[in-house]
Design a protein that fits this description.
By secondary structure, the protein is mainly alpha-helical. It has two domains: 3-84, DNA polymerase, domain 1, CATH 1.10.150; 96-292, Orthogonal Bundle (hpI Integrase, Chain A). It has helices spanning 3-17, 27-40, 45-60, 71-84, 96-106, 113-128, 132-137, 179-190, 221-232, 244-256, 261-268, 275-281, 284-292, and strands spanning 143-145, 149-154, 166-171, 202-207, 211-218. The chain is elongated and about 70 Å long.
């Protein structure tokens, strides 16, 4: 159901319970409703939903100005936002030394498909500064290998307003932690190089005839998070780890190595003004400098 419609129905229920006129909404009643939501909610989200839905209803009825534009209501919303604010506690970044130890422990010649999947997720997410959902969406056709780098096409990113897609470039390093070499090794074990639509972050099933085989469905966000936390729990406190630990770690290592800030913003796909234009103008070599500076 449309979120605006849900918010509107919740307001009508509140109005009926307190014998208030539901429409058009009076300023005082709306301010009281905002205070009620602030006391009964753990975040600002229900209040934002209420404001947007009531504004939506008045816009449909061509009633102007909307009560949501009143300074009284705005002050009530701002006060609720401050009272519900919570200090941010970001997850701890993963370092390149953590990944080096992980590769040493899990990346031997006898590494299983589960080990290589863990290493693929960690190394590529770190070097590409990828969000978890971005990595999950990548399929075999989105990877291109070259003699000195790998190009990874990400169909959707948060800063890609027009869904044009974004290509992340990851350099070869020749080190044991090289994300490109690990990707090639992982794909070879999966045997999916001739299956363009096959997801790279996938599950496995056991068959009597062929043993362990990759499934054709990508893993869920929760499953990938559990894989990351479990795989890195030997090196860091699991409570400090999350799906953004690898992305934050890659950005932190690049920043500490004095990589150009514009390259970091473009590689990571953070929301920034004209980030798409900056990406187009810069050369591939400048983008590869991001991962070369990470000692991978």
């Amino acid at each position: 159901m449309d979120k605006n419609l849900v918010g509107w129905k919740l307001w009508k229920l509140f109005a009926a319970q307190h014998d208030l006129r539901a429409f058009p909404v009076k300023l005082v009643h709306l301010a009281l409703y905002v205070q009620h939501l602030a006391k009964s909610s753990a975040s600002i989200s229900p209040i934002d939903t209420a404001i947007y839905s009531i504004r939506w209803a008045h816009t449909l009825a061509d009633i102007s100005p909307s009560p949501t534009d009143s300074s009284i209501v705005k002050l009530a919303v701002e006060g609720s936002r401050r009272s519900l604010a919570k200090p941010k506690s970001p997850k701890e970044p993963v370092s390149s030394s953590d990944l080096a130890q992980l590769v040493a422990d899990k990346g031997g010649q006898d590494a299983s498909a589960f080990d290589l999947r863990l290493l693929f997720i960690c190394l590529v997410a770190f070097a590409g500064m990828l969000r978890c959902d971005e990595l999950i969406s990548v399929r075999m056709r989105d990877l291109s290998f070259f003699h000195d780098h790998m190009a990874l096409y990400v169909p959707r990113r948060k800063n890609d307003k027009y869904r044009q897609g974004h290509t992340v470039f990851i350099a070869r390093s020749g080190n044991p932690t090289c994300p490109v070499a690990m990707s090639e090794r992982y794909i070879a074990m999966l045997g999916i190089s001739d299956k363009p639509s096959h997801p790279l972050v996938c599950g496995f099933k056991r068959t009597k005839r062929h043993g362990l085989k990759p499934t054709s469905k990508p893993l869920s966000y929760t499953t990938v998070r559990d894989i990351i936390v479990k795989g890195l729990s030997s090196y860091k406190d699991p409570s400090t780890l999350g799906t953004h630990s690898l992305r934050a770690g890659g950005a932190s290592e690049a920043a500490s190595s004095f990589v150009n800030e514009r390259c970091i913003a473009r590689q990571g796909g953070w929301k920034s003004t004209s980030s798409k234009d900056m990406y187009i103008k810069d050369s591939i070599s400048s983008k590869l400098s991001v991962t070369r500076a990470m000692n991978l």
